[in-house]
Amino acid sequence: MGFLQRLFGRNESSKLQARSRDFQEKELIKDYEDLVEKTEEFKRENLAWQTEFNHIIELRQKAQQLEKENKLEEAISVYLKSIFAGEKSEKLNINNYAFDIERTIILFSKTKRTDELKKFLEEKIDLYPDFQDAKKWAVRLSKLNNEKSNQVISISPTDINEQTSGKTTIGQRINDFKMKMPEFNFYYDLPENSDTLNYNNNVPFEYFRKLREFREAFETIKSLAKIAENEGDYKKAIEAYKKMIAEEFEGPEPYERLIIIYAKLKWKDEEKKIIEQSISFFTNLKDNQLKYVLSLAKKYNMTDKALEYINQDKKIFYYGGAFELYNPQTSRLTKWKKRLEKFNK
Predict the structure, then answer these.
(1) CB within 10 Å: which end of the chain, N or C, has fewer?
(2) Other CB atoms within 10 A of residue 14 CB
(3) Tens digit of pLDDT for each residue in 43-64?
(4) Local confidence band at 4 (pLDDT 50, 70, 90 cut-offs)
(5) What angle do CA 325, 331, 333 make, to 5 degrees?
(6) Cα–Cα distances in Å, from 223 out to 113, 131, 136, 227?
(7) Range list of H helices, the chain
(8) 295-304, long-range: CB within 8 Å, 24+ apart, which pairs?
(9) At 326, which helix (H) or strand (E)?
């Protein structure tokens, strides 16, 4: 005899079991009805989003056609309508109309509507401070605000504070993370008639997102450097560019900008030193990259393919172009070596 039967007797037990079944059925029906309602709500939300986004697309296409017809003023007006529609929407976000913002910036510049461009940039920077292009907008705004000013804060080499990195540089942390990502296999197992753009060896998207987060630290320093340079604050700019170098940034920007700034300031010794440092850094970087890609190519029996790129001075990229596995650095090393020769003569 079951527990309920012993406790309540056979008849009462049957009633309780029936009630329990009824309750469970009602709960199942309620859960199903809730699921149906949520599904319908999702469909309504999706339809509303699609309707608003389609309106943005229609305006964008109209503006692009006006651009092709060289009706730039009219195109600006339509792009602004698209942006306004996106910003007043509760369903769309800036990613849905960022293209329209960028085209508006470009067309304001083309049509020499500088004051309107400044105001537009100020509004968007204030409205979207965390958006990925906000730093770029801030740099552009600083250049506009100072393009007619030749004022440079007077400094000497001794005014510059040397820059150091933490225990582990940003560049090293990025490289350490790259080494944890799945190895590049030179597409040795790429299916026939397949496109390399659609092949990423099942690398999780999270890895690419994390890589962008690491790079964001460098982008912040670079933006501060460019804004300072545009404002004529060469001390701040130099220190920011030197900070990037101390943190082992693998791009040419800090080296290129320091060469230009030192030339403007007529700091010959500093200019020569940074050229020598540039040549040394990128020569070592190229050599290390070369060893690594050749070791990968050998592992996957793709040495001939790797050498084909290397011998033609071509770059080799990780899946999706996420980062450079090999860069021959030919043009910039040649340029810097020629410049150094002039100093030595």
Answers:
(1) C
(2) 13
(3) 777 788 889 999 999 999 999 9
(4) very low
(5) 85
(6) 24, 14, 7, 6
(7) 3-8, 10-68, 72-88, 98-110, 114-127, 134-146, 170-180, 205-230, 234-246, 253-265, 268-299, 303-311, 330-344
(8) 296/183, 296/184, 296/185, 296/186, 296/325, 297/186, 299/183, 300/185, 300/186, 300/188, 301/188, 302/185, 302/186, 302/188
(9) strand 324-326
Which string of b and e fits 141-163 if b means at least 16 CB within 10 Å?
bbebebeeeeeeeeeeeeebeeb
Nearest CA to 224 among 134, 164, 156?
A: 134
Q: What pairs with residue 316 in β-bridges?
A: 326
| pLDDT tens-digit readout, 289-318 | 999 999 999 999 999 999 999 999 999 999
CA distance 316 to 257: 26
Specify which residues 317 forms β-bridges with.
Answer: 324
- Look-up: residue for tokens 């090999």? 326
- The whole-model pTM stands at 0.76
Q: Are 324 and 316 in contact (CB under 8 A)?
A: yes
The rounded distance, in Å, linking the Cα atoms of 16 and 193 is 66
Q: Which amino acid is at 283?
A: T
CA distances from 90 to 52, 84, 315 (A): 10, 12, 44
Rounded Cα distance between 140 and 276, Å, is 30
Contact criterion met (CB below 8 Å) for 320 and 208: yes
Tell me how far apart the alpha carbons of residues 172 and 249 are, in angstroms, rounded to a whole number: 9
Q: What DSSP element (H or E) covers 325? A: strand 324-326
Measure the CA–CA gap between 36 and 40, rounded to whole angstroms.
Answer: 6
